[in-house]
Specification:
The chain has about 325 residues and is α/β, with parallel strands linked by helices. It has one domain: Metal-dependent hydrolases (TIM Barrel), CATH 3.20.20.140. The protein is about 50% helix and about 15% strand. An eight-stranded parallel sheet has the order 1-2-3-4-5-6-7-8. α5 runs parallel beside α7 and α16 runs antiparallel to α17. The longest helix is centred in the middle third of the chain and has 18 residues. The radius of gyration is 19 Å and the shape is globular.
């Protein structure tokens, strides 16, 4: 019988929570930096890897974020983002991820010489090129950012609406401990009025209050991470009854220390209790993981079976920001 990892690797998969700016190849970071004449800590790929990825046993939010700080300046360029979007899609395809919703915050990439629109067009070119060359559906979610201005969030939603063919949703990311989601209410009201699906990072480093706020105030139909859902029984029961999807990301939650270890991660209880749980990579480049790695963790850490893995993949299809017709096609393609 094949090892569990090999079976999982061969399964068609769905990733709903994958950040483009956390999905870079180390060699690409070096090559893009050279093109931009940007100085990195090392010009050697192996040495540079120590700066732009974290070790598997990383247990420090500071170390995790420092990896991003090393390369983030090179992302403020449309051609760089085009390459990154293409390669991130290619990497997902090589892991047999057939449907992947990528996300990024154009407001962060537009802090250099280019506008949010110019950055977005670069990303869309890269995604479209990969979709043409590979058997992958790779739509985009645009992130608003808590620490940025409400005006930038409004602009982000308008950009999403102008590009509805490729942009399937809107997100709110960033520091949920110190910045209120309420400041961005106007942007998310606009998204709601135009039937643009909403997912929000909530209950990761912040409290369960942030999850309630995301659903009740900002109209979120999915929650990114949501690990503190277990801290409010009424809200937990509401999520269970209404099958509101949770985009859980195991390895990054450990590496950023929002949970101490896999044994205490709420995934197990949420899954076995019937909540709509999905498993995703978050920042696969920085974390040095694939979606197959994350799903394999479930068989090793929680004794889940391949049928359980298929159920979680099916949850991902159900929770995806796509049409019911496409969901039916994906399920038939994946499981028949």
């Amino acid at each position: 019988m094949k090892p569990a990892f090999d079976i999982i690797k061969e399964l068609p998969k769905v990733d709903l929570h994958r950040h483009l700016d956390g999905s870079l190849r180390v060699r690409s970071i070096l090559e893009i930096a050279n093109q931009q004449q940007y100085t990195l800590p090392s010009a050697d790929v192996k040495e540079l890897e120590k700066y732009v990825t974290v070790a598997p046993d990383c247990r420090s939010l500071g170390d995790f974020l420092k990896a991003f700080e090393t390369f983030y300046p090179i992302l403020m360029n449309p051609s760089a983002m085009e390459r990154i979007a293409f390669e991130a899609s290619e990497d997902a395809f090589q892991d047999n991820v057939k449907y992947c919703e990528f996300r990024f915050a154009p407001v962060l990439q537009a802090k250099g010489d280019f506008s949010m629109q110019e950055i977005l067009q670069g990303v869309l070119k890269g995604l479209e090129k990969a979709h043409t060359e590979y058997d992958i559906i790779n739509p985009l979610i645009l992130c608003c950012y808590r620490s940025e201005s409400p005006a930038s969030s409004l602009e982000t939603v308008k950009l999403a609406l102008e590009n509805r063919k490729s942009v399937v949703g809107i997100d709110l990311a960033g520091d949920e401990e110190h910045y209120s989601a309420k400041d961005h209410l106007e942007a998310f009201q606009l998204a709601k009025e135009n039937d643009l699906p909403i997912t929000i990072h909530a209950g990761e480093a912040g409290t369960v209050h942030n999850i309630r706020e995301a659903v009740e105030l900002l109209h979120a139909s999915r929650i990114g991470h949501g690990i503190h859902i277990i801290d409010d029984k009424d809200l937990y029961d509401y999520f269970k009854k209404n099958q509101i999807p949770l985009e859980m990301c195991l390895t990054s939650n450990i590496q950023t220390t929002v949970v101490p270890d896999l044994a205490t991660h709420p995934f197990r209880s949420c899954y076995h209790d019937g909540l709509k749980v999905t498993i995703n990579t978050d920042d696969p480049g920085v974390s040095s993981i694939t979606l197959s790695d994350e799903l394999h963790l479930l068989t090793r850490q929680y004794d889940l079976t391949i049928d359980d893995i298929k159920k979680i993949i099916s949850n991902g299809i159900d929770a995806s920001f796509t049409t019911e017709e496409r969901k039916a096609i994906l399920k038939k393609k994946f499981f028949n």
